[in-house]
Specification:
The chain is an alpha/beta fold. The chain contains five helices and twelve strands. The model has no long low-confidence stretch (mean pLDDT 94).
Amino acid sequence: MLALRNSKPASELDQLSSEITARLLELPTVKEARTISTYLNIGSEVRTRGFVEWALWNGKRIIVPVVDRANKRLIFSEFKAPEELERGDYGIPEPKREFRRPVALEQADVILVPGVAWDLRGFRIGYGAGYYDRSVNALRTHVATVGLAYDFQCVSNVPRSRYDRRVDRIVTESRIIDTRPKAF
């Protein structure tokens, strides 16, 4: 899946990401959120720059992950401007030390989650280190989670472990998939 995603031209991924952002903004959970945690994309991931610009312009508080490789966890920092960023571990953009403003992930109203492949139940394959799963599983309260994916990343089933946590929704360029268990 990663090879397929990486084979797509940047212009195509830019266009699809714009469509995903537009669909993401249809979600009342996102429009009404005050604080949003989002990843800052690398490589062929769904681009988040347009969303971050919209969120900051609309007075949202944005928090982004910072990789704490020594402790195999993510810490979260408020993000205010692109010039605050540098390439961190794994090449991921993150705030420079002097711009880190720690924020507990529990303060987020919505968490946007990256992935390599997604199934329709909301489980994902990430990059294998488990950083996001550990962060979300450590939450003491439920925070809405949204996976961002290109349609071609959605498959019928992905392998998972007992530590994997499903997202509440997956947003692609053509649909919003509600993965929450349905009450009967």
